[in-house]
Design brief:
By secondary structure, the chain is of the alpha/beta class. The protein has eight helices and eleven strands. The strands form three sheets. It has a five-stranded antiparallel beta sheet with strand order 7-8-11-9-10, with helices on one face. A four-stranded parallel beta sheet has the order 2-1-3-4, sandwiched between helices. The longest helix is centred in the N-terminal third of the chain and has 14 residues. About 50% of the residues are buried.
Length: about 260
């Protein structure tokens, strides 16, 4: 199921800026803005909301709507009341506007359903791109004594070796401790890179206990260069997943 977003705000600049940020994290998500009054001033417009909903639903199976202030909420509710076909496919959420939009967009990018995307928006409590610059060149376990396995390369061309996993006592659980190397740590762009990568791997992974598929949780760790983090994964492919995420962290996300 594909899920799009509609941002309803009193200010076109606010909506456009939030949309720009969300698109950097989730480039494939359908995202529409309905902001400002018909004269170009501050306010909301029912026709603009209706047009944005129609356009988003033409490209997605469902839509999550975020509104900045009370009157914007009332405008969205009016649009839903006027068209009985909208409510089954639309979720108006109570969420912080910027944080909720980013969290919802990243979750939608991962292919989650309407309810999950709405929940991600409503669970957003912190502020929070491009694909990973690291190139996976050998799978963990594929190296030899003379040529150890690597998970990627840094911008300098230096190979990043697979860190030695530590068993947790469960055959399907491993953990790896690595040092954060990029100056700003898991800020917005790296957090989105990790979240999308882990979602693609399909393996449960945490970093210092935070869900590695959640941009907001990763950013809440407040990491910076020199911090040591523990990457834990579980499942049949746990070792490979932990190694991939460790490679991303050790490579500095291309920011070195």
């Amino acid at each position: 199921m594909s899920v799009g977003l509609v941002l309803v705000a009193h200010s076109a600049m606010l909506a456009d800026g939030t949309a720009e940020l969300a698109r950097q994290m989730a480039p494939d998500v359908e995202l529409r803005c309905a902001a400002g009054d018909p004269d170009g001033g501050l306010g909301t417009s029912l026709p603009r909301v209706q047009d944005a909903l129609s356009a988003a639903l033409a490209a997605a199976d469902g839509v999550v709507v975020l509104a900045d202030l009370g009157s914007a909420v009332l405008t969205v509710e009016s649009a839903l009341e006027l068209d009985p076909e909208l409510p089954p496919r639309v979720r108006l959420v109570s969420a912080p506007f910027v944080e909720g939009a980013v969290a919802a967009a990243v979750t939608a990018q991962q292919g989650a359903g309407l309810d999950a995307v709405a929940e991600a928006a409503e669970s957003a409590v912190l502020s929070i791109g491009p694909e990973p610059v690291l190139q996976l060149v050998q799978a963990p376990g594929s190296g030899t004594a003379d040529s150890p396995a690597v998970v990627g390369t840094r911008a300098s061309g230096e190979a990043i070796p697979v860190p030695d996993p530590t068993s947790s006592g469960d055959a399907d659980q491993v953990s790896v401790t690595v040092e954060v190397r990029n100056p700003l740590g898991l800020h917005a762009r790296p957090a989105a890179v990790v979240a999308r990568s882990v979602a693609d791997l399909g393996v449960p992974v945490t970093i210092n206990g935070a869900d590695a598929t959640s941009v907001l949780q990763l950013m809440s760790l407040g990491t910076s260069a020199g911090d040591v983090v523990t990457i834990a994964a579980r499942g049949p492919d746990a070792e490979a997943a932990a190694a991939v995420v460790a490679g991303l962290v050790q490579g500095g996300f291309g920011e070195l």
